[in-house]
Design goal:
single chain; 79 residues; alpha+beta; four-stranded antiparallel sheet; 3 helices
């Protein structure tokens, strides 16, 4: 069976996404969709107030991979 976008999305429905990531060029935006994701970020990331835009954390793209690795290691669902 060939995986289509629809089947992938259905399989992901079993567990809600904690963090949604969007690349904006030199900035990567992390939309924190669950309280667990926000708690992890507040406990593990050194954040300046200007890095927030609503419920999204904006970081230099050079640091995004390390941030994603930490989130995945903590058991967060990242998409």
């Amino acid at each position: 069976m060939i995986k289509t976008k629809t089947t992938v999305n259905r399989s992901r429905a079993a567990r809600p996404t904690d963090v949604q990531i969007r690349s904006c060029g030199s900035i990567t935006q992390f939309l924190l969709k669950t309280p667990a994701a926000k708690k992890w970020v507040l406990d593990n990331v050194n954040i300046e107030p200007w890095m927030w835009m609503g419920n999204a954390l904006n970081v230099d793209s050079h640091y995004a991979d390390r941030l994603v690795d930490g989130m995945l290691d903590a058991g967060l669902e990242v998409f």
